[in-house]
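job 3f2a | input accepted
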Amino acid sequence: MISVYRLYIVGLLLFMWICATHGQAGKIIDERFLFKEYDDITEQLVITHPALYRFISRDSLDALIADGRSKIHKSMDQLSFYKLVSPLFAAVSDGHSKILIGESLYEKIYEKKGIFPYKVWMDNEDRLFVIDTQLDESEIPLGSEITAINGVPVAQFINEAVKYVTYEHKSYRNSVISDNLNWLLALTLDYEDTLQIEINNSPSESLTVSLIPFKKWRRKIKRARKKSSKRLLEIENNEYKNLGDQIGYLKIHEFGSYDIARYIENIRTIFQQIKEEHISSLIIDVRDNSGGDPRYVEALIHSISNIPFCRTEMMYQLKKGRPNSYYRLLGNTGEGIVRFAANHMIYSGYEDAYREPITFDNEFNGDIYILVNEKSYSAAATLASVIQCYDLGIVVGEMTGGTRIFQAYGLTKNYPRSKFTSLVSSTMIYTACSGFEDKNGYLEGVVPDLVVTRKINDILASRDVQLDYILKLIQEGGYEKRYD
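job 3f2a | predicted structure (484 res):
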């Protein structure tokens, strides 16, 4: 029989353990396993990534890796370990490569801190605006510019946040910060339940904002995501409507589906409808499209083009087990250096990138307009690049978040102690007409033929100035305006 004294001791120890772990962010990882997983993660990054030293020198990255390892001197929680490994991926500046963490860690952090109840938008001048709220009565006027959070100026917050953001150029970076504000706040600021927000109104003022309990926010988000996922599945991520005056509008939410054959069938059905409606001008909207499978891009191009095309000029991969040495692939023939002829016949990841035209009965032969913005990424940016390269249409909007030259085809590896997963790009991709030696292609997305930039007032008024611009352009003569 257990004595009262022993029960007291057990209870006291349990209470002390709860108190000691209450403030921890995720499970505690023993120091021995931290070293092993840190070394495994950095090794995976170094031996897999095809362009490790694009934006950072070898010496600087080696120093960053060594500095992170030197900070492992005792057991630490998951969040602290994440803060050591995530900056390594951010330093490589590749939006496809990152450290993924489990939902349980997000939940633990958000349960402790709460959720900021506002949607924000950061412009290209690094100004942070409030554009929507989850509250019935907004404490912050919509359209307000946030100048500081908990006394930290927004510029300083950005400098800290980018340590955990993987991106190629600034406009895409700012969209990532806007969309992941809660996570970046949790990584960079110390707070619970409230945030002190300074806004640049007339006059400037400081407001204490109460945060939403995580469980309440999660229920709302799950319902919205479930509804959205169901709708996108039903339409195969493609949403078409007739705008009148022989103008069609095709919104592509992402280039992906559960079945490529079903996707192609869906695309053909849409273009059959376009043909029956005698559409002469087609607007294809890939704004906020984060990419996906490039085969879906090809299925779309075949429906609007009757010429041969290359989705990519060149792709090459890091030779497995030999850091920083490359081999180039042609089709699926294996390793070896490939001799290139003009801009054709380079490895695509599935089969040869060179494409002969496929003619469909319902192929579209009218004017094409492609809408892009800073969230048009990866395969969506590739589509815009192909459209420009082969003069298949006119690109309108803002520079794509995805660059003309980028890395993709990520390889994953799981780490049992931290419960993290590393996703590391394995392939260097040069999109159509990017140029093998085009240094700007590293840094820039696809620049539209006609740049139309949104302002904060447009966003607040739900005014689509980019679509309106195209509609006006069509009314005034369409393509001919491109050459004025």
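job 3f2a | The domain at 110-220 is CATH 2.30.42.10 (Pdz3 Domain).
job 3f2a | closed
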